[in-house]
Task: inverse folding
């Protein structure tokens, strides 16, 4: 079985998922294992990820985490204020099962189904790119529906040993194609994957 691909979405806005992940597959960030590896190289790469998008599609927990930190950093005017302003200015679409009251500008809750909303965003000619930072449950649903165009993982050289993993148990494997790798001095490996297509067919013809 191959990584599922949604039909009829060629030429539309890409959905790019980006996650910090431990070597054992844990994608639920713990500052103890993540921050020792964050350097200027990762900062530059993360900035590249955000520059691909004019929409953030995120879960409620990720939104609450961002909204609890970045507006204050923007107001403080420190060295990360320009990035904080970028986050504030970008459109933020939030998947939540409960009503939301937003104080951070350009924030809206999904009205209806996540997958329908993601498909609508991809087909909107006014949207150039959609980034899903973190938001494990959102990414899992998008992966299962074949709506992720790129999966960008920052693989840390550490076994977290606890925490939520990106790939949950299921009956169908996700086949991925590596398009880019980059090794940082810290030992973190940035890997960019795309859907691999029909692996069984390719193997049969080789």
Result:
């Amino acid at each position: 079985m191959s990584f599922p691909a949604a039909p009829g979405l060629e030429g539309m806005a890409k959905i790019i998922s980006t996650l910090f992940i431990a070597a054992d597959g844990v994608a639920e960030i713990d500052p103890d294992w993540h921050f020792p590896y964050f350097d200027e190289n990762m900062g530059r790469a993360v900035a590249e990820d955000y520059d691909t998008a004019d929409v953030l599609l995120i879960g409620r927990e990720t939104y609450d985490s961002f909204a609890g930190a970045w507006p204050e950093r923007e107001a403080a005017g420190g060295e990360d204020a320009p990035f904080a302003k970028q986050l504030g200015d970008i459109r933020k679409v939030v998947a939540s099962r409960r009503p939301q009251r937003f104080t951070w500008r350009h924030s809206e809750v999904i009205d209806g189904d996540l997958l329908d909303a993601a498909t609508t965003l991809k087909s909107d000619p006014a949207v150039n790119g959609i980034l899903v930072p973190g938001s494990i449950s959102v990414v899992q649903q998008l992966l299962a529906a074949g709506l992720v165009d790129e999966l960008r993982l920052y693989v840390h050289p550490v076994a977290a040993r606890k925490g939520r993993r990106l790939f949950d148990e299921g009956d169908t494997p996700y086949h991925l194609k590596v398009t880019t790798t980059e090794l940082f001095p810290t030992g973190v490996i940035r890997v960019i994957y795309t859907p691999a297509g029909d692996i069984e067919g390719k193997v049969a013809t080789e």
